Amino acid sequence: MQRINEDIKTGNFKQIYLLYGEERYLKNQYTTRLCKALCQDGDEMNTHFYQGKDFSLGQVIDLAETLPFLAERRVMFFKDTGLFKSGGEKLAEYLASPNDTTFFVFTESEVDKRSKLYKAVQSKGYVAEFTVQDENTLKRWIAGILGKEGKKISENTAQLLLSKTGTDMENIQMELEKLICYCLDRDVVTAEDVEAVCTTRITNHIFDMVNAIAEKQPQKALQLYYDLLALKEPPMRVLFLIARQCNLLLQTKELKNRGHDNKTIASKIGVPPFAVGKYATQASHFKTSVLKNAVKQCVETEEAVKSGRMNDMMSVEILILSVLPS
């Protein structure tokens, strides 16, 4: 990120940029900044956008070979094409020696670092990975956004906000906009404000549901399920999230038993380090055998629904009741 900032500041750009990773907000922010820096305002003749896989690489290369029209450069933007996982060989060959006046900006969620296209970009351009930001970074970012609006937030209240929003910066940004409007005439954002206007992620409902299961409170678990249905969440999505939660708990429990620390566990199961403590606490309420059986039951429930042997809504109700630890 620092390299991109420096390139924009000096105007000394790489010909190819690859921005990838889980953090969409930062990827979009830096893609927009590169667009403004590389492209003349309103220049549709020399600025081109491609998304997904619905385009011809042959036509892209032909266009890349065309000199810009009354401009310094032609700029081509690609988003979520999947070319860095498969199908990018032809473009990789071209990027080994591209037209000097054509610039490329790729934005991807996932890449294969072994692919020819990744290696070509790494060799000729600049690669930036945008990972999920840690808790302290997010708290500083939250405080910074609110500070620009003349508002303050305590560390505990910022923590409460993160517990509701998760680490997705796009989601946090939307919730902060709601808070700023709600606290228009006040300079301190309180926990009561967060509780009043911020939306709780569905994954939090799932976490609470599994907690209720662990505490042998079937009625509470079912009520949380009915709340999700009232919010128009499809039963099969709820089933998927229950399965995901049980699988994360199983992995956390097994990795803890092997002596791994929270940072290592976070890396292996794909969650922020500050979330591992919650998973470890919840996992401690289940035997390993119960969690393994729960994951198995989730798979069997999905198969039963897809084969038409069970109704989707009822199947999740039965699952919630059947995975209660004995």
From TrEMBL:
InterPro entries: DNA_pol3_clamp-load_cplx_C, DNA_pol3_delta-like_C, DNA_pol3_delta_N, DNA_polIII_delta, P-loop_NTPase
Domain of life according to the entry: Bacteria
Domain DNA polymerase III delta subunit-like C-terminal positions: 204-322
GO function term, MF aspect, one: DNA binding
Protein source organism: Simiaoa sunii
Reactions catalysed according to its record: DNA(n) + a 2'-deoxyribonucleoside 5'-triphosphate = DNA(n+1) + diphosphate
Keywords, sorted A to Z: DNA replication, DNA-directed DNA polymerase, Nucleotidyltransferase, Transferase
EC number: 2.7.7.7
A single cellular component GO annotation: DNA polymerase III complex
Record's protein name: DNA polymerase III subunit delta
Family: Belongs to the DNA polymerase HolA subunit family.
Species lineage: Bacteria, Bacillati, Bacillota, Clostridia, Lachnospirales
Main enzyme class: transferase
GO biological process: DNA-templated DNA replication
Domain DNA polymerase III delta N-terminal: 17-129
